[in-house]
């Protein structure tokens, strides 16, 4: 799909019928536009360039990446492996001193190993819960990425639309300039009244004001795009592209993709799995625990008043420990009831999320199809309006059409092309929304 209309200089020449009829100010203005366009052409960015810059520099994505790394660090094998601790101590007794007044010193050191061999399979549930939380964090980061990419794409296509609308406003202003010159020439030779010249001047001022507003909207849109990419806010003019619709999206494919890849659905399913793991963790409290413990200790005592100055002792100890919770005020039963309710809540939330996604997709698809149909109608209307405008310009120059009638035809052309630009943009936005919802962006 090509952008609306031909370059403004070609359009004005076509309507005027001769290049020399263009006012000098228009020539200077067009030269300035050409210089600015050439300067910006060296900085053109494609849609992929804008997305890459936004993903690499966006602060929210950087934060989400660090949070995902934290979740990855929390996935550990610590529940399955033993713990080893070392101890050292030094005691000094001053109550029973030796003959020479020296206190009794005791030195000790040891190693202790503790290993939980069985806890009702709670350690496996905890490890799986850590992995599931990592999955949720990754899905959250993906959701942030999809939102950012979707926003950048919509803003990119908005820039294209606004640039086309600014080009359209510039074209109409140049037509009004030509009309004003024609009316002024006719008024000077007496073939037309000064009223027509004043009306043409009013329309020229209105079109000039409209052009200023369109260029302002374009600059504001560039500022928003620069904010998304964390780039210099003053950058502009780097988008020179057209909006091209991809092949028709099939609703059955979109529904299947949404069921498999939609982030909201995947997060709801992860919530179901997390609630099931929480239930297993609570249930593990009803089972006995089995621990293995071992240690090695070394002790040395300084007692000079006895037969030996130092007394040493060392040894190894080990054993198994079995524990079971016989009664804790029915606290475990209460937690199990709440865990079952959490499982039911998460299942219900999953069903609601799946229904909401399907409902939103159905509505978006209707809007998508309607916009595609409107594109053909508005293209045809814009082509017809252009032919009417070209014919009206010729009739106006020979005096066969009044300025008011020419203005009405000019406004019809403006409205037709503006509707065409808007419907193409809306169709592309609905396409992006469908792909985002289906997890295919």
Q: TL;DR?
A:
Helices cover 66% and strands 12% of the residues. With 441 residues, the protein is an alpha+beta fold.
Note the run of SSEs as H and E. HHHHEEHHHHEEHH
Q: Please tally the helical runs, counting DSSP H or I stretches of 4 or more residues.
A: 10
Average of pLDDT: 85
What is the alpha-carbon Rg in Å? 39 Å
Helix coverage percent: 55-70%
Low-confidence stretches: 1-42
- Overall shape: elongated
Tell me about the biggest sheet? 4 strands, antiparallel
List keywords for this structure.
441 residues; alpha+beta; 10 helices; elongated; four-stranded antiparallel beta sheet; 4 strands
Notes on the structure:
- The chain contains 10 helices and 4 strands.
- It is of the alpha+beta class and 441 residues long.
- Strands 1-2-3-4 form a 4-stranded antiparallel sheet, with no helix packed on it.
- A hairpin with a 7-residue loop joins strand 3 and strand 4 (310-323).
- 23% of the residues are buried.
What is the element layout, followed by pairings?
Blueprint: H1 8-16, H2 24-41, H3 47-57, H4 59-73, E1 83-93, E2 104-118, H5 122-189, H6 194-229, H7 251-261, H8 263-283, E3 289-302, E4 310-323, H9 331-397, H10 403-437
Antiparallel strand pairs: 1-2, 2-3, 3-4
